[in-house]
Q: What sequence folds into this?
């Protein structure tokens, strides 16, 4: 399961002929169609997809075995995964979101701030959702070079220089 990366999700039907709305989480959204068969996280289902048109924030796509609107609607919310070895290698300063989740976050003085719970993007840039025992609620840390100067995947840690007052 560690070698699977979530690359997209079905967002319901598109039209009445079994097409689906497909959200892509890849850097180049149309690349989702180049990785071959996509699967559910548990591998129980596999999907061959063909993008048919671009929509606002999604694609319309044909999916193998899906012929009706009802079948397409039944897939809503299904996350789509691909094996890491089928994805391109990343430059040193880029990371798959799945690799960041679970990393410990330390400040530049070595104090543990928490652990990355999720990575979110609401349009402008990525945010690391950090939670920990000393925090009243989760903190959204901007995932920028200024706020997160170091990501060390080998040691499982992030060094953060958060904006003043973010963790207080």
A:
């Amino acid at each position: 399961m560690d070698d699977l990366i979530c690359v997209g999700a079905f967002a319901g039907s598109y039209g009445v002929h079994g097409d689906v709305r497909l959200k892509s989480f890849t850097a180049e959204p149309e690349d989702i169609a180049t990785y071959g068969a996509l699967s559910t996280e548990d591998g129980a289902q596999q999907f061959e997809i063909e993008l048919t048109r671009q929509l606002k924030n999604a694609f319309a796509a044909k999916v193998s075995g899906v012929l009706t609107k009802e079948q397409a609607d039944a897939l809503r919310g299904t996350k789509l995964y691909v094996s890491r070895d089928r994805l391109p290698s990343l430059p040193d300063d880029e990371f798959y979101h799945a690799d960041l989740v679970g990393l410990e976050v330390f400040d530049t003085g070595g104090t543990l701030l928490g652990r990355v719970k999720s990575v979110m993007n609401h349009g402008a840039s990525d945010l690391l959702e950090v939670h920990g025992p000393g925090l009243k609620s989760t903190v959204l840390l901007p995932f920028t070079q200024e706020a997160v100067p170091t990501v060390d995947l080998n040691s499982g840690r992030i060094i953060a220089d958060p904006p003043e007052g973010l963790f207080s």
